[in-house]
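[Meeting: bench + compute handoff]

Bench side (C.D.) handed over the final construct sequence. Compute side (W.E.) agreed to return the predicted structure before the next meeting so the bench team could plan truncations. Sequence as handed over:
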Amino acid sequence: MLSINDIKKIYFIGIGGIGMSAIARFFLSKGVKVSGYDRTLTPLTKQLATEGALISYADDISLIDKHAQLVVFTPAIPKNLAIMNWYNDNGYQVVKRSDVLQVITADTFNICIAGTHGKTSISTMVGHILRQTGYGCNAFLGGVSVNYNTNFWGSNNEVCVVEADEFDRSFLKLSPDIAVVSAMDADHLDIYGTVENMQDAFVAFTERIKPGGLLIRKNELQRLNDSMIRRQLTYKLQCEDILPAVQSHEHNEEHHHHEEIAPDICASDIKTADGGYTFNAHIAGHVVHNVHLNVGGLHNIENMLAAIAIAKSLKIDDNKIKDAVADYKGVKRRFEYLLNKTNSSGEKLVVIDDYAHHPEELRALLTSARHLFGNLRCTVVFQPHLFSRTRDLAGDFASALSLADEVVLLPVYPARELPIAGVTSQTIAQHMEVGKVKVMEKTEWLQTLHDLRTGLLITAGAGDIDALLPQVVEILTEH
């Protein structure tokens, strides 16, 4: 591939994708002429256009840049795209997003965050702490930071914070100095076939850590004991509920798998405060006292522990870290408060939006929301993402969604897939209590909001449910 510094014109196929747009912004920041195609106009593509990218929305050869030195595509595009075929047939250098990231990060100090969920939040937290404390980094994120309203920022410090994506095995092209693995739940089985294959890929990812590098992993990911990386720290939400490490070795082999060794990183004295938390962060024997996190979701405390551990491994001062954490405003569509109001009669209406599209993410989302707003009736509106995921995990989705009082299922968002016979949102509904769940079209659901005065409403999914949110807020603020 061309050296990054030699590229003057670059074209992106699927430029509106969250990972693609971060790389497009990297090149825009370097003064490169950026153009691209996406199938729909979105807030993200609009913003890229204002930043200088030329974007077209038709699969039309006459609209593309025929002088592009490099063409980057996302695996999410359909196989029969005319633009893609034209570039391929005419001898252009056409590469995946992951190949470009590999070249950008070839000679930098890399902090790579992997996991089937949690990676966007942790990456954004790490990038924010390094930016706010003055340490400096280039951040390539899979979500839009609320603090900076972008998913990329640059720095003169040769440090990259990269979201390491397991989809399509693209994280195996990265070379981390510090790596995080937050979760390895079954996902992307359309690519991996089995959970074991997927976990093998995570083990292989950890083995790409540079000599002397550090792995920070969720405490229960025992499978990563197979990794050859010597420097490992484990993290878990709470310190108190774990048996001392000594005990776990005294039991015989049968019980061995049920014991958990105490984590190196955990939180103590967690208190809720106005939709957020205070806690003490224990980082491998060191305690950062009285940390304030003003973002909801217990899983976000856990995510922040991993970010604080990275900051401490870079020798950043405790007080600087605490100031940065207190100022962290989250990621768009990650436990994002759209409304949190109390009317004159004292009735509360809270609306939370989240990108959750996997059963474990939904479980964490609903558990945390109920923990913060336990007295409110909880309705979750979920748009399943992918027919294959809906089919493979229907029972798990049903079980997680059942944590709400009422469930509305919107039609499945197909993304990169064609429909699968017999797979619809009803596939999830049939595993649930009859009176608790309704399958509705979007317009039908929006109509029901006119009567909503009080309660906790959660919208979730990775499809286009977020396009409805301005209407949702408008309807609910009318009264």
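W.E. noted at the follow-up: The longest helix spans residues 298-313. C.D. will use this when planning the next construct.
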